[in-house]
Amino acid sequence: MWKIVASTVGEIEARIIERLLVANDIPVVIQKTDVFVHPVFGSSVQCEVLVPEEKYNEAIEIIRWEGKNVKYTPLYEDHVKLGAKMVEFAGFYMPLQYEGIVAEVNTVRKEVGMFDVSHMGEFLCEGPDAIKFANYAVTNDFGSINFGDIIYTAMCNENGGFVDDLLVYKISPEKVMFVVNAANIDKDFNHLLKLSEKFNVKLTNISDETGLIAVQGPKTQELLQPNTNLNLEEIGYYSFKEGEIFGVKGIISRTGYTGEDGFELYIPANQTALVWRKLLEIGVKPAGLGARDVLRLEAGLLLYGNDMDDTITPLEASIPWAVKFEKGEFFGKDALLRQKEEGLKRRLRGITLDGKLVPRHNMEIYKDGQKIGYVTSGTFSPTLEKPIA
Fold first, then answer.
1. How far is CA 121 from the centre of its chain?
2. Which of 19, 24, 27, 23 has its CA nearest to residue 1?
3. Third-level CATH fold of 2-69
4. How large is the angle between the packed helices 11-22 and 56-69, nearest 10 degrees?
5. Strands 71-72, 92-97: parallel, antiparallel or unpaired by DSSP?
6. Using CB atoms within 10 A as the burial measure, which of 44, 123, 139, 201 is most buried?
7. Separation between Cα atoms, residue 229 and residue 41, nearest integer Å
8. What is the DSSP letter of 269?
9. Consecutive H or E run containing 243
10. What average pLDDT score do residues 184-210 get?
């Protein structure tokens, strides 16, 4: 007798589980079963992983142990085949680099590159209070933006510290999507669940079912336009449309984490590899986390865990424009208002260095022999040709 040990959306994750179990001398059978209906993107094939009944308990423990340690994005196999250097990041195996960080930075700045960011978290918020709830949960004025627009914002705790920084998509009067950092998926979802108790909404974590590819660089629109049914010129900065890319349904948004023009493609997890391979065919080069970190730092964009955490507020992180006190009540408002009235005692600032020393996380900064701060993020900027922090 065979017993189902796991169900997956798409075949890639099922094959990864198969390799894991076979490596531990457990026979595996994979069968395609039902059609999974993704809440945003439509239908996907669902797979079941089966093992002999007498091996079931052992298989469950192996999967649980592996799951506690590291997860895989739908593109893991593609990264390995392309020769990427893989590292663990935020609980996922992710590509650090392909041909090299500097080369990948230059590709994105001058042409077009793409990043696997399927490790990011996505939550759907649905119900009559969806917009009202989202506006209460975040610091920026989500209520003021139009349908089809996106807002960058902080989500704070009762002391005004960051729970996370995130994007919120205004899909319809009763549907909103939160996009959060990979390391904070569970924490953020639980935080939102608690806040939602007094609102008429339903929260669904769709992170595992959703793939995400960021295509970035000045030539992005030119390369993508022939392969979508949307007019990309009509998608403004921090806006999105639902449509198709290479025949795959998804959300296409004009957003990114590089300081360049570009689009982020939210698609079903089991069709992410198809889109990735089509992008390779039209000449888009892959880039890794190393280049992404340099690009975001050159653009002055924050990284949760480095530049801010639950003890640092949006005001201290120098994004006061993402806190709208005048919009009404939001969680963490009282603490932030007190801090604003009392004045800031510390503040995040960008700096450049004239020498050759490359600043790194937690390095101390001195002026006239006195410590005045520390580095949150630092690197050498290929674009500016100098160290930055």
1. 6
2. 27
3. Alpha-Beta Plaits (3.30.70)
4. 110
5. parallel
6. 139
7. 15
8. G
9. strand 240-245
10. 97
Query: What homologous superfamily does CATH list for 76-119+209-298?
Result: Probable tRNA modification gtpase trme; domain 1 (3.30.1360.120)
Query: By CB neighbour count within 10 A (0-12 exposed, 13-18 middle, 19+ buried), where does 87 fall?
Result: middle
What's the token pair of residue 75? 């593109």
Outline which parts of the chain fall under CATH 2.40.30.110: 349-389
- DSSP per residue, 86-151: EEEETTEEEEEESS-HHHHHHHHHHS-EEEE-TTSEEEEEESTTHHHHHHHHSSS-GGGSPTTBEE
Residue 43 contacts by C-beta under 8 Å, 6 or more apart in sequence? Answer: 35, 36, 37
pLDDT digits (tens, 9 = 90+) for 87-130: 778 888 899 999 999 999 999 999 999 999 999 999 999 999 99
CATH superfamily label, 349-389: Aminomethyltransferase beta-barrel domains (2.40.30.110)
Distance, in Å, from the CA atom of 368 to the CA atom of 11, rounded to the nearest integer, reads 60
Query: Which of 54, 85, 71 is CA-nearest to residue 20?
Result: 71
Cα-based angle 159, 376, 87 (whole degrees, multiple of 5): 105
CA dihedral 287, 292, 295, 296 (to 10 degrees): 160
If you count them, how many residues does the chain have? 389
Q: Where in the chain is the domain with CATH 3.30.70?
A: 2-69
264 annotated as a binding-site residue: yes
User: Contact 148/235 with Cβ under 8 angstroms?
Assistant: no
Report which of 90, 92, 191, 215 is spatially closest to residue 136, judged by C-alpha positions: 191
pLDDT at 33: 67
**Range(s) within the chain of domains with CATH label 3.30.1360.120:** 76-119+209-298
Q: What is the mean pLDDT of the chain?
A: 92
Taking alpha carbons only, the member of 28, 27, 46, 48 closest to residue 37 is 46
